[in-house]
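Hi support team,

I submitted a single chain yesterday and got back a structure, but I'm not sure I'm reading the C-alpha cell output correctly. Could someone confirm the output below corresponds to the sequence I sent? I've pasted both exactly as they appear in my results page.

Thanks,
R.
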Amino acid sequence: MTGRKPISKKARFEVFKRDGFTCQYCGATPPNVLLEVDHITPVCEGGENGEGNLVTACFNCNRGKAGISLSVVPKSLAEKAAEIQEREAQLAGYREIVQEQVDRIETDMWVVAEVLFPGCSEKGTRRDYLQSIKTFNKRLPLHEVIDAAEIARAKIYYSDLRMFKYFCGVCWKKLKDSE
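Hi R., thanks for writing in. Yes, this is the structure output for that exact sequence:
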C-alpha cells in the first residue's frame, strides 16, 4: 500500500476551480454539500496527487467511491450539458417528424372524405367517420384508401351510413389481403 501524500490547499482550490466547484459524480454544489478532492486512480492503487488524477467530489460521492478506480475521468458538466442538448435536438427532430406524419394523415383524411362525401366540411362530417378514415390512412397506402372510397361511392345506397360501412368493409378486406 502506497503512503498518502497530502494535497496542498492551492492544488485543491485549482481542482475545485477547474471543475466549477461542482461534484463531478452527482453535480452537487456548495452550500448544499461539502466538496472534497478525490483521486481518480486511488492512492491504494498507486494514484498520485497530480491534477490529472484529481477530481472534485462531494463528501457522499467520495465516500461512496472509496478506493474504487475509475477508468476515465467523469464527464464534466460541459460534456453533460452537450449530451442533454444533443438529446433535446434529437427529440425536437423526432417531434417534427411525428407532427409531419399527423399533418399528412389529416390532409389525406380530407382527400378521402371528399371522395366519399363531395363538398364535405369539418362541421358537416361525422367525427367517427373521419377517425375511421385516419385509421385506414395509417395502415394502408393512400391510393388504396381512395380506391376503397371510389368503390363505395360507385354503388347506389339509401344512406351515407350504408356507403360508409361498405367503404370500411372494402378497407378491412384490403388490410386482410395485405397480411
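A quick pointer for reading it: The chain has a mean pLDDT of 87. Let us know if anything else looks off.

Best,
Support desk
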